Inverse folding.
């Protein structure tokens, strides 16, 4: 039984509200869960009270027991100061400009100098 700390979606259409929960890895997103740890409301401005409410003691307990977090939850918890900031992922080379675009950028840079 592997546990995850993740978000479960609630709220109305186009007005999401999320619960921070501990659930089994195989249970559905909005399905059965073990414990509710907090809430996240993306419509409240960043830095205001009520945007991300979390029970820090319970999160630390579940992490010590072996529960893993999803990427989004890890970022939210890091912003709240519960866990260390996750390492940034490197952008894949696929998204880099292609050969002709790189040539145009070099040409524009040499013209400006």
């Amino acid at each position: 039984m592997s546990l995850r700390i993740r978000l479960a979606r609630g709220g109305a259409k186009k007005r999401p509200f999320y619960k921070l929960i501990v659930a089994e890895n195989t249970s559905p997103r909005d399905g059965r869960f073990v414990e509710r740890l907090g809430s996240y409301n993306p419509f409240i401005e960043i830095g205001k009270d009520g945007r991300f409410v979390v029970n820090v003691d319970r999160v630390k307990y579940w992490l010590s027991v072996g529960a893993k977090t999803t990427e989004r939850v890890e970022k939210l918890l890091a912003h709240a100061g519960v866990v260390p900031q996750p390492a940034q992922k490197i952008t894949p080379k696929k998204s880099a400009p292609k050969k002709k675009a790189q040539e145009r950028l070099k040409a524009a840079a040499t013209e400006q100098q």
